[in-house]
Design brief:
Elements (H helix, E strand, L loop, with lengths): L21 E2 H9 L1 H8 L8 H9 L21 E10 L4 E11 L2 E8 L12 H16 L6 E6 L4 E6 L2 H18 L20 H4 L1 H7 L20 E5 L5 E5 L2 E6 L2 E7 L3 E7 L3 E2 L1 H10 L3 E4 L5 E5 L8 H10 L2 H26 L5 H13 L6 H17 L9 H6 L12 H23 L18 H7 L3 H14 L8 E4 L2 E4 L1 H16 L1 E3 L6 E3 H17 L12
Parallel strand pairs: 1-3, 4-5, 7-11, 8-12, 11-13
Antiparallel strand pairs: 2-3, 3-4, 5-6, 8-9, 9-10, 13-14, 15-16, 17-18
Helix pairs in contact: 1-2, 1-4, 1-5, 4-5, 9-18, 10-11, 10-12, 10-16, 11-12, 14-15, 14-16, 14-18, 16-17
Length: 567
Amino acid sequence: MSQPVNISPIGPIGPITNSDPIPVRLVNEYAYCPRLFHLMYVAERWDDNLYTDQGRSAHARVDDAADPLPPPVDPDEPPAVARSVALGSENLGLSCKLDLLEVADGQAVPVDTKRGRVPPTPQKSYEPERVQLMCQGMLLREHGHASDYGMLYFADARRRVRVDFTEELEARTRHLIAEARACSQRADPPPPLTDSPKCVGCSLAGICLPDETNLLNGAEKDPPDIRRLYPARDDALPLYVQEQGARVGKSGDALHVEKGSAKLGEFPLKDVSQLVLCGNVSVSAQCLHLLCERGIPVVHLSLGHWFYGVTMGIGLRNAYDRAAQFAAAADDGRRLPLAQAFIRAKAQNQRTFLRRNTTEDLEAALEEMRRLILRLDACTDTDELMGVEGSVAALYFANWAGLITEGAARAAFSPSSRNRRPPKDPINAMLSFGYALLAKECTVALLSEGLDPYWGFLHRPRHGRPALALDLMEEFRPLVVDSAVLSAINTGMVGVADFVTSHAGCAMKDCARKALIRAYELRLDQMITHPVFDYRCSWRAVIRVQAKLLAKTLRGEIPEYTGITTR
């Protein structure tokens, strides 16, 4: 007889090896969607939503305590009840934790708790639920109990549904167990479901991107019917701490910012997506531990707002994406098309930005930019590509004066070229700061996908430079940062008095930095119609989707990467 084994609590678990027992709830996930199973248990991807929160709440009572498995009893003995019973079997290759076990009348009856109401099907249940219960029955039989049926308890309806352990259900369950074990050994996930109602409400839909992946593979319908299965914008936002000498600590589930004995603010953790430390700002060890545990990155910027790095938890432990990234970077035949896609999107967006916002006649410059963009596909290496990109950028910044509203601001803010280290005028000071903010946004997005932000395709790797983040941000420079800078100037959010200019360069005062952060965050939060998928979402969401699509391109799930361009 197999012996019980210790089971991890409900939540994502590590990848499975041939000798590992498969958690029973994993078989449930496989029966529901093989791709969901692979994302959760091989790629170790997980995200919560309303339904997973409700499921966790429904299980709260049965998860409070762990009871041992009661021994088999005779029909004449009093019934026994146990909660959170851990079971395992080497023979079956399964493990589980029973929500509730009732032993009475010689029968061991597993009771599995489900959120929601009874499904409107003839069996009053779905196949994944029946398969999960059948697995529990098979484990109980391995431990010497008679188990002919189980119960599904639907928490919202407060109703039980009986599931008989028939020969047909057992055969189907054994078949799915074998398929799940084979799938767990694959490096690449199965293809997404096509136009499936299962994707609606799936907590991993924003990671899987089923409709988007199928569209880019040519397997999906027209873009107007693509479903946005992830939030259009985040409720949580970055918390910027710029007060020099401030300290960030934690109090319960909230961050509090102090300077000396003065309390500068308190922010619930649920409202914080990133903690951005600007300059001489410290953070307590306890706060770092909490942020790493919750998956909230800590971004480090210098006093001059150079982007230094990110502190995060362990995050993804799946090495396949990085292996694919390094292989593509070493292959010029794959690296060059990716670099071209980044630069082509950036150049097209720069041209569109000038055309949309100029108050002058720029037909000659726009035509020259169009001609240069056509040359990008003929470039044979990244050096040639960067040369063409530099020519486009020179035309772009030479005509920035035409974007600024007539008046005193035009004379004060008009740049003649892009310059940095240090910037020599207010425009370039704001652009450098904005690009540092965008670099950290792209770095966080890439880290969330398990990619190495320091190993790029266009920008060559260099110590301390997030090359892939710089690659990804190229297409978003005009769309996000340049737009925010222009808005801050033309709306009067910043003025000439907000800068300090000397022979050494131009620096932003605190009020200018705060104003630009506000303009930048407003731009990221702005809702747009996605130019490829034709649904509404924020610019911040678009950056994250592009990072996901880049990872899918590297793994071969979609044939090529396409940069975001606006019309």
